[in-house]
Fold these 2 entries.
Entry 1:
Amino acid sequence: MTPAAPHRWRIEVVRDATPRRRALSLAAVMLLALALCGLLLRAAGADPGTALAALVRGAFGSLNAATETLVRATPLIFTGLAAATAFRARVWNIGAEGQVFAGAICAYGLSHGLAGLSPLVQLPVVLAGAMIGGAAWAGLAGLLKTACRVDEVISTVMLNYIIVYVLSMLLLKGPWSEAGGFFEQTAKVDPGSVLPVILPGTRLHLGFALALLAALAMQVLLARTPLGYEIRGAGSNLRALSVQGASAARILILVMILSGLLAGLAGATEVYGVHGRLKAGAITGFGYAGIVVAILGGLRPWGVVGAAIFFGALVNGGTYMQIKTGVPSALIYAFEAIILLACLAGWAAAGLRIRKVADAV
Amino acid sequence: MLSDLLQMSVLASILAATLRIATPVLLAALGELVAERSGVYNMGVEGTMLMGAFTAYLAADGTGSLTLGLIAAMLTGALMSLLFAILVVTLGIEQIVTGLAINLLGSGLSVFWLRAAFASDAKSPTIALFEPLDIPGLAGLPFVGPVLFQQKLVTYLALLAVPAVWFFLYRTRQGLELRCCGENPKALDVKGLSVAARRYGAVVFGGAMAGAGGAFLTLATSARFVPEITAGRGWLAIVIVIAGMWRPGPVLLATLAFSFLDALQLQMQGIGIRVPYQILLAMPYAVAILALALRRRQSGAPEQLGIPYIRG
């Protein structure tokens, strides 16, 4: 028997990955991700089949469950759109988390003095406040980048930590804390500022319709407007764009502001659509989850909506799963990360192939 | 009030606390420094530290050995970074996004595992902490003794790691090759040396260091794991590498400066200075932004930082 010719495995880049190849590779990695999630369920001492069935039932089992899934998806649509918009332009806004806080704080700050007035006055103030707050907090990071060359990844993360303390300062024995209250939260907001329910008998509120509207607006903006062209251009070929006279600094600031105002709206929908009061627990975690949603949605507005509903279902079903099987619902966050990693790997793997090459001797 | 802060004994306790607070950040920053010098921008430090903190706690609680806890944390950190390296070095995926995914993984997995292992956060047992290790002959010195020589073992190791990393990077052939990966990977490739292997090595080392940093939080500070115990220290490590211009000495200085601020605010809280404590807690993050905004030059970053190397 002759020894095999010396060879090794080499990874090469495929320049023309077909959509079919991409879909196959993504499906393969997603299966792997599901298997991993199953393993985690087993590790938690649950039967994966039963647990998954409980998860699906909890997410879509009844009208109530399904609308609750949409309620959970609402802030994720906003933060997902925020991340997608920024990432499309290759602006790494990791600060949606803090911009959600800023939006909620600004909305509350501007509107809590208007108690008793008509919803027609209060609601626009709430929404405008959320957008202003989110946009300002994000715009600050944009300015730091253009004026002081501070990497936006770092500044947005630092701003995420800072705003949590700002809120805490306002709420803990601060100017906004509930009178006589023990918890770090405001009193209930005025009924006139609450986002109305759009499907009677459920908790599905106006915020969900606004989120869909925002997705539509982003779709049109990205596909049909000069700014959208610039955003897409900034993502693929910034140099070509500057030759045409677009300013990179201007695009960066605009993208940050747009991204921030979308994230800020998530703060308003949670405070004024779900919890009815401002507290950190009501608005935590949506920013980071939004990044996952954006990537899973392929950085496209309608993809983001789909991914957000998927994640809303996971979170909503996860609670039911915990009640039924005792599996901690925190598992959902590990799921999110695994799905994100699988998604990234699937994309990349579609563009690579492994080939046996003869060893150069 | 100010005179309280200026007393020698108070100053000594602030400085001793500075070194204690610096330890986890310094370990993570040195690891990140090596990874970045090889050209890989690992933004997953926070999640890696978090998993390190958790597995250290779990292992120490299970075996009763703090050393095993530390080793478990380093192994976990190395594993997390191996996963990161496969994704960014071999598959060439965007490093920033992958790093974020690693953070989410660390944060989700540690909380899930904590809840799965113990009925509730409050019911998780506390563990014995690393005892301070007095250096014979030096610990008794006035002022210097309590500051420098009554620290815990991991703190000494972290401080010793600074010259060790410096020596490796600037005085060994492997260190030179690793820096070359970050500046001009093609040159290595042309010589038949593997860029990927060196980047894997650097990233996995960084992960082990981040794991050790996380371990310090549970094994030497807190005695129990609480969700998000790292509280941004992993991100601070990344800031410190930038502020330290990608060099071990300045990285140590930057770490000490941030930790001193933190120690100072603890002391100010202790003696009841009337500043809202949230302002003191937010200070390191604000100072991090200021430090980056005010630095005079951008240089020092490896030429190829964050750019995947694709052969051919």
Entry 2:
Amino acid sequence: MITGDLKATYAADERVLNNSYKQAFVVAMAALCALMPLIANDYIILVASQMGIMLIAVVGVNVVIGYTGLLSLGHAAFMAIGAYSIPILHRLMDNAGLPDGVMPFIAIPGAIAISAIVGIIVGLPSLRVKGLYLAVATLSANFIIIFLIELEALAPWTGGLVGLNTPDANILGWQLDTQREMFALIAALAFLTILTVQNLFRTRVGRAFIAIRERDYSAEILGISLFRYKLMSFAISAACCGLAGALFAYFYARILPEQFELALSLQLVAALIVGGMGRTMGPVFGVMVIVMVPEVLKFTFGMVAGGAAEVAQLRAPVQEIIFGLLIIFFLMFEPLGINQLVDRGIRALNRWPFARG
Amino acid sequence: MGEFIQFTLNGLMAGTIYALIAVGIVSVFKATKVVNFAHGYIIMFGAYFYFTFSVIVPGAPWAPDWLQSWEPAWMVAMKADLPMFSPMGAVLDWLSNLPRIVLGLAGAVICNALLGLLIERTLMRPLIGQSTFAMIMITVGLISVLSGTKGLIWTADAEFVPHIAPNTPIRLNLFDTPIFLFGADLVNVAVALLLFGAIVAMVRYTKGGVAIRATAEDQSTAYSMGISVPRVFSRAWVLAATTGAIAGAILATRNGVSPSLGLFGFSVLAIVLMGGLDSYVGVFIAALTVGFLEAMAQWQFGGEFAEVVPYVAVLIVILIRPHGLFGQKEVERI
């Protein structure tokens, strides 16, 4: 709750950005994203694009873990499905003789749809089991999907262990072949995803998810069909991850199965826990931290060690330790994440100069 | 037929090792209701500790020579007389390795026990009484911490370590096909079975075991009956870490030490859920079944199929029996 924030009309209360801090933050972010392709250097564009892709995926994870309360450790698999759908669909459309300019309009929704269907299949165990059993079931699904991608027999389609080259997106003749142009697409879709998901939780579907999170039996007694809404939650979150995967495929020149292994699933969950589960802005803060950690480390190691190879070797393990410690630290000391810290700061600002009463 | 028996035996032997690893996850769950996702990485630490104390320490310049290779005069004399590849030769090789094997096992068990205590004290104890979600996610965070720490301490990959028993090949003839077994494998199986049996007996019959069961039943009642619940927690973690150390050492002798040992923990987690989280018997049966199925998959389809067998098996079992083969159904109150 943010106090010191008076709403005089219902319309003011129902607005998406219902206080001035939110408005300021969103407007600033939108302006920053709009200006960035014009002024930022390549490195900043790269980092920002990574954030955008991660953000879309974490928003999806938030739907299932944060709002519906189903613990999933396999969301990297949905990103893999989305990413692999792009080159495969492009190849199919090439064979069918479609022009390049319309392909993304079919490939991206196609990738989202395929991911959502896989999400429903992976979500099926959630009807029988929950909590920890579900975590292991989704973890197993992640291993199985990566195994299928790496399988020799499917290698003509998936490229097997060595991965696939991915096409560039071409929107009605506009070839997005630089990272700068891709960033514009990623930023626009990231905004759209957050808005859509935020809107979802103002509808009956979103409220059903939250009821299931609070107590699934009680929700069922209230007339919420667990079967329908649990699977829907999985489908929506897999669709978001599929979109993230599709953008991942367009953004990088090549995709490899090992990029979508358990480590990525853990990173997504880490970003969510650090940012704050079940909150709209949680994924935004979490992704900023999780993507910045490797970059800050790279910078510090570069300053401390210069070019010494032995020291540079230590960077990857240190990064892993920091990810783990971030999860542990936030769970132990601030389970509601950065979002809660920010809320607390805003509350203090509102009351200033008076202390907490 | 002979091939079938060979693969079955291999699978069952792998299954007993799975059971030994699984016992750590089950013990921690029974006492603390926390499922340790990072158990595989604790095993990996056990394997690397074994590697440190049986390869690196004896190889250090300050270590006495007998630690590296113990060769008294009578052994040299005996070795000189033996023909190549004789079973006695393997036993003698093992004897000269014995000091470093013992040091390695002792070091691995002690260091891993300390690691288990450290984890329990710093991460688990502050969260007693909190939601299990937080505790489980902390073990997920622990995965990254342990695997990163390993990368900082040990850079060695795929290094070989001495077998814990003489590795003489044993050849049998069944149905006119030769069957090969290795002495070290048989001893590994025996060690795993003994430890498994000892732990089950301990939980059933000793005072400490009764305390663990009482805590599993109801923490606050156990507390009010005079059982020190925190001590039960740390005992369970030490038990898991030490069995993990021995399992890690055994795994290291089979395939060498490597970071992929950590991934082993996930397939064992799948086995544990398959058997039922709180049932030693169920987990033992599930471990043997998965070992057997893995061997069959390897035989019929090739090695890479064996990796996904536990995951496919657990998905099927969970869908049919959500609480595992022998697990107790949780009663939920609203």
